[in-house]
Structures are given as C-alpha cells and as structure tokens.
Automatic annotation (TrEMBL):
GO molecular function terms attached to this record: dioxygenase activity; L-ascorbic acid binding; metal ion binding; oxidoreductase activity, acting on paired donors, with incorporation or reduction of molecular oxygen
Organism field: Pilosella officinarum
Domain of life: Eukaryota
Coiled coil: none
Name of the protein in its database record: Anthocyanidin synthase
C-alpha cells in the first residue's frame, strides 16, 4: 500500500486492514520493547510515576507548605514527570474540554479536513497527521489538532473549530487556568533551585511572552500495536507540558533504563518538565524521554499543552546560580529556535540522543 502524505491514520484504522503499512512499522531493534499497553497498566510491579497532591501548595502552615514543595521537587528531580491531583482546575471544565475535543474528532474526516494544516507552506496550526522527519522516514499512528491557545493576542481563532459550539469557550477558559497553574509550578521549581519565586517564569518569557500551544492527539485503534508507536521516543522541547487524557493508557517513560507505563490516575493532569527547564536548571530537573503506545481495542485521546519560551528573544543556558566549579554547565547557550533545530537535525540524521 502506498501512503500519501495526507492519509489520515483514522482512515487506515477504519479501512479494515489487518496489517499496517510498512511506513508505520518501527525498527527491528525497537520492536522487542513495544509491549501490550493494556496488560502493562494492570500490573503494580516496578517503578510508578509519582502522584503529587497540590492541595497544600498554598497552605498557610509553613511545615505543610514545605512538605508539599519538597515532594514536588523530588518528583521533578528524580522523574521529570508526575500526576498532579488537586490542581485547582475544576472537573467540570476538564470534562468540557475533553467532550469538545472528542466531539471534534468524532466528526467525519471530510469535516475535519476543512481545518487541515499545511506544513509545507508554513501553516502549522490545524488538523494533521505526522509527516516523516526522521532518518528512517517512519510515520506515527496518530492524527492531531494543533493550535496556539495563550496569550490571547497570539491566537488565531479562525483556526479553532466552531463545531462543537463549546470548543472555543471551554478551551479558552482551560488555557487561562493552565497559564495560572504554570506560574505556580514555575514558582515551586524556582524555589527548589534557591532562586526568587518568579525567576524561572521570567527566564522563559514572563507574563507576555510564554506561549501555550495545545495539541490534541488522536490515536485510533491499531491492528498491529506491537509494531507501531503513537508517538516515538522524545523529550519535550518546551518549559512544561500539561496533559489530559481519556483514561486509556499509552504513555511510557524511560526511567532507570527501562520503559515504565504511566497508570491512569483519575482527576489528574500529567506534568512533564521540558528541555527548557532542564537546561536552565543545569540538569537538576529532568526532561524525561517518553513515547506513546497504541492498542487494538480502544481509541486513545490526549490533550497536551506545551508552554514554550519565545523562539529568539531569550538565550537558554544554565542559570549562573546552578553552575559552579564542581558543577560546570552541561548545555551550550542556544535560543529556543536553535535548540529545536539542533534536535531536529539529530533526529533527521538518526541520532538517538534526545538532547
């Protein structure tokens, strides 16, 4: 079967094929690591992604506040990923965001195509599917919808779906609340480095320049999930990533030289530390390698909000307070744009090292 660039994975999934096209089959050396995600999530063996309760992050009791911050810093230092509970965003709003995204993807493909992007012409926002940008020319088993959601003056509402009608109001409100949560998270991370509470937020663009991008990932059922990946192994380029999902497992983290499956924790938001914070902290906080698996039985949907610094205005390098004679800088100075290009170049040339 010949795959053209605009083929949607959903179309393949619904076509009744029993074997996936070769473009979606992972390299031979990677295949032994791809397991049945639905079996994996049912076991409690091995390490587990930490769950952090943010209920006490605003506590007036110094000891309670300190304990909450310490647990958070420990997770950011050892894992770089965690489930956040009692995060302050209402169950009702999250349900609306999920319902809106699922409703959009529930439309016929020809309706979704009205919102399609065009990477070749520079139109990156909209409905799309992964194009090959790695050495082996492989594709990933997902379709997606991508657009900027904050600040308001950086959005292009002409890209946003108008069906369902609640998509825009729900997503707008969710973006505002994620932006407020970002400030809280960056404050705790700053204090964990011995810095002023507002320092990391300032370093990644402050109130005006930090950009929030939403990517809704749609992973259709896959007839041969043991051969494919929804998203290949990578680290996030950004400062922070916040993820919702439809309670279907799929996320795996590379922790202590093994792939660990993230459990589905009710009412949680998954938080990833991205490369930007790892660089600024000189490696104290981890940007963990992760990937998405697919399955035969259930469609998986996730909502990822990437918090990105401005591409050219800021030089990303370890902060002076994180560097010493004993701990020299681990990363060269680069703009965010240069960091993106550096990683893309390595990926295109088949270099596995994520940094």
């Amino acid at each position: 079967m010949v795959i053209v660039t605009n083929t949607r994975v959903e179309s393949l999934s619904k076509s009744g094929i029993h074997e996936i096209p070769k473009e979606y089959i992972r390299p031979q050396d990677e295949l032994p690591t791809i397991t049945n995600i639905l079996d994996e999530v049912s076991t409690d063996q091995g390490p587990q992604v930490p769950t952090i309760d943010l209920n006490d992050i605003n506590s007036d009791d110094p000891k309670t506040l300190e304990n909450c911050r310490n647990e958070f810093i420990k997770a950011a230092t050892e894992w770089g990923v965690m489930h956040l509970v009692n995060h302050g965003i209402s169950d009702d709003l999250i349900a609306r965001v999920k319902a809106a995204g699922e409703s959009f993807f529930g439309q016929p493909i020809e309706e979704k195509e009205k919102h399609s992007n065009d990477i070749a012409s520079g139109k990156i926002q909209g409905y799309g599917s992964k194009l090959a940008n790695n050495a082996s020319g492989q594709l990933e088993w997902e379709d997606y919808f991508f657009h900027t959601v904050f600040p308001e003056d950086k959005r292009d509402l002409t890209v946003w779906p108008t069906t369902p009608t609640d998509y825009i109001p729900a997503t707008e409100e969710y973006a505002k609340q994620i932006r407020a949560l970002t400030t809280k998270i960056l404050s705790v991370l700053s204090l964990g480095l011995g810095l002023e509470a507002g320092r990391l937020e300032e370093e990644v663009g402050g109130a005006d320049e930090l950009l929030l991008q939403l990517k809704i990932n749609y992973y259709p059922k896959c007839p041969q999930p043991e051969l494919a990946l929804g998203v290949e192994a990578h680290t996030d380029l950004c400062a922070l990533t916040f993820i919702l999902h439809n309670m279907v497992p799929g996320l795996q983290l590379f922790y202590n030289d093994q792939w660990v499956t993230a459990k589905c924790v009710p009412d949680s938001i998954i938080l990833h530390i991205g490369d930007t914070i790892e660089i600024l902290s000189n490696g104290k906080y981890k940007s963990i390698l992760h990937r998405a698996l697919v399955n035969k039985e259930k469609v998986r949907v996730s909502w990822a909000v990437f918090c990105e610094p401005p591409k050219e205005k800021i030089i990303l390098k370890p902060l002076p307070e994180t560097v010493s004679e004993a701990e020299p800088p681990l990363f060269p100075p680069r703009t965010f744009q240069q960091h993106m290009e550096h990683k893309l170049f390595k990926k295109k040339n088949g270099v596995v090292d994520p940094k």
